[in-house]
Amino acid sequence: MYFGLSEEQQSLEDNIKKYLEDNASLDSIKEVAGGDSAKSADIHKGLLELGISGLMVPEEYGGLELDMLFASVVSGALGSGTAPVPYAGAYVMAPIALTLAGSDSQKENWLPKIAGGEVVIGIGLSEYVGAREDAAITASGNTISGRCLFVMDGKDANAYILANKAGELYLVDAKAKGISLTELVTVDKTRPSIELNLDNVEAELLPGSESNQEVINKVLDAGRLMLAADSIGASQIMLDKAVAYSLERKQFGRVIGSFQAVKHMCAEMAAELEPCHSMIWHAAHCYDHDPSQARLMACHTKAHVSEVGQQISKTATEVHGGMGFTDELGLHYWFKRIGLNRQLLGSPELVREEAARIQNFDQSPAGGQSKKEVGNPLLV
Fold first, then answer.
1. Which of 95, 131, 143, 357 is most buried, most CB within 10 Å of its CB?
2. Burial class for 215, CB neighbours closer than 10 Å (0-12, 13-18, 19+)
3. How would you list the strands of the sheet with 179-184, edge to edge?
4. Is 114 buried (19+), middle (13-18) or exposed (0-12) by CB count in 10 A?
5. pLDDT in tens, 162-186
6. Taken in order 210, 213, 219, 220, is the CA torsion positive or negative?
7. How confident is the model at residue 1, as a pLDDT?
8. pTM for this predicted structure
9. Whole-angstrom Cα distance, residue 265 to residue 259?
């Protein structure tokens, strides 16, 4: 039995990678990282023409209604090119949240616009995933107040879907009164995150999320799979670049790839990364077809890929020697991409703790700091 990508999925992956090679070169990424929002908008527009915005939107609302495996293929391709565009939050998590929990009017209003690439919806799940003492969302009637950290795809968004501690989801128009936005400075300059401060802001509850944690868990699982796939794409590029460099760079009259130590470094990276491709495919399959394993596989995949990605980004940089740290080579863009993905929607430690709870393992603390006591590792 063949277990892998279909011809359609491979074609979609190849088309996105080809588009990014032609339109999002390293020089373009440097411009975006330097603050060129027009360049980012141009890249985004071209990807919309390839259909990334409609992947997860039901057909009745103008979307393609594809599955999580298609979505993960796209995310991996975007990661390989460090694409400076919204995706995981705006085009995967948001349409899933609206489809599962939105009212008929909310679906009719927003889903066709998402499918057509007319709107971007940011996603803020920080309070549900890892609450901070000084950041909480409280609801009173039709308004919400509080602070939401690390809203994914929130910069220049038309609306936001925000979660409170109970997992209830609220839809907020970006033009509503009482919203102030702060762009967070993180290591990854290609995908900005924002912080929202809300003061009695008008909001709509997604009714299907009320007293129903299954909805937010599905949204969260989808986001974690997208981040894992993105990291796999970035890791594969770093590995490929390391191998190519080892076959070009000469030392002591020989290419460094002929030295046993360098061979081992590249072989170990390949051996660690190769099973991750199958892991993300299986996790995506479980998301759509095996609900009993879906949450556990999403947790395992996010945690494992985060660890593997961290090791590959480190080793690939070492293979390049001093060149690996230069902006000229640009390897650090993939390095930082993997680093931010590792923390968003839960670090490996937090996600493994969730996996333990899913399997009813001992939950007693083993000492150390609580989540509230640990500072935010993403701010630099």
1. 95
2. buried
3. 137-140, 143-151, 193-202, 179-184
4. buried
5. 999 999 999 999 999 999 999 888 8
6. positive
7. 57
8. 0.93
9. 10
Q: Are 102 and 41 in contact (CB under 8 A)?
A: no
Residue 207: burial class (beta carbons within 10 Å; 0-12, 13-18, 19+): middle
Amino acid at 124: G
**SS3 category, 329:** coil
- Tokens 């802001």 identify what position? 201
Distance CA 372, CA 360 (A): 23
- How crowded is residue 247: how many other Cβ atoms within 10 Å of its Cβ? 14
Going from N- to C-terminal start, the domains of the chain cover 213-358
Dist CA 126 CA 379 (whole Å): 14
The topology (CATH level 3) of 213-358 is: Butyryl-CoA Dehydrogenase, subunit A; domain 3 (1.20.140)
Condensed to tens digits (0 to 9), the pLDDT of residues 199-222 reads 999 999 999 999 899 999 999 999
Residue holding tokens 């996105």?
16
Contacts of 364 (CB under 8 A, 6+ apart): none
In the block, residue with structure tokens 């970006």? 174
Q: For tokens 């107040």, name the residue.
A: 145
Terminal C-alpha separation, the chain: 47
Beta bridge partners of 123: 152, 161
User: Which of these, 158, 157, 156, 160, lies nearest to 147 by C-alpha position?
Assistant: 160
CB 249 within 8 A of CB 255: yes
- Give the H or E element holding residue 179: strand 179-184
**Distance between CA atoms of residues 88 and 226, nearest Å:** 6
